[in-house]
Amino acid sequence: MSAIPSTAQKEPNSHTSMADQKDNIDDFKVQTAKHPNLGSAPLRPHSEQSKDRMSKRLSTDSNGTSDGGVGSSTPVEVTALEESFRRFAIHGDTRATGKDLHGKNWSKLCKDCGVIDGKNITLTDVDIVFSKVKKKSCRTITYDEFRAALAELARKKYKEKTGEEAEAEVFKLIEGKTPVIAGVTRAVASPTVSRLTDPTKFTGSHKERFDDTGRGKGKAGRVDVVDTSGYVSGYKHRGTYEKKLNKLA
């Protein structure tokens, strides 16, 4: 009889604890709804948040996008010609922004992309056009001035074509191109080099260092290796006797 009242007394306490747990769960859900990342990631210092905003702004400027409002951005299409302009603009200059092009890289662009042909367009013509389109107080040209300079060179390079057709031809030469790094050149086949590196034309001791396919023999082509196998040279059934013994065993 004494066990029944004790059970009755414990039941209200159990209901009370369950109600408290439910209230705690509801409070946690409310806090989580207000702060979704409250339990997943710690709050970052204000200085790091400022650095993130600065890096995002710089990447936005470099990618050609502009902020159109809170949490939105308006992409600006970058053409292949403008992309090549930016690549040459920052070539060799770590502080360059890619928004303007100085005379040295302008000449390099015309040379690497084939605008200079040595006949209709020379390096002197490129320098003259650069000085003509740039502002007097500036040593660089903008992208718009760059297009104007190309248009003038195009009319001189393709005299038999109209202005728009000539510009289109010059633009094709530059679109998608990157600066050629000094010291990195493609191998050019030369008759003299080919003759000197062809093993089939070697004579004397040099001929013995290569086999019929032109592959080097290694040490066997440099020193006389003594054959101590016991077989005479030219014997075609070398090793067959050992194989027969192994089968019989």
UniProtKB/TrEMBL annotation:
Location of the protein in the cell: Cytoplasm
Domain of life the protein comes from: Eukaryota
UniProt GO molecular function: tubulin binding
Record's GO cellular component terms: cytoplasm; microtubule
Residue numbers spanned by region Disordered: 1-75, 198-221
Chain intervals with Polar residues compositional bias: 1-19
One Pfam family named in its UniProt record: p25-alpha
GO BP: any one term: microtubule bundle formation
Keywords, comma-separated and alphabetical: Cytoplasm
Biased composition (Basic and acidic residues): 20-29, 45-59, 205-221
SUPFAM superfamilies on file: EF-hand
Cited InterPro entries: EF-hand-dom_pair, TPP/p25
UniProt xrefs under PANTHER family: P25 ALPHA-RELATED, TUBULIN POLYMERIZATION-PROMOTING PROTEIN
Family label: Belongs to the TPPP family.
Protein name, as recorded: Tubulin polymerization-promoting protein isoform X3
Chain's gene name: LOC117553946
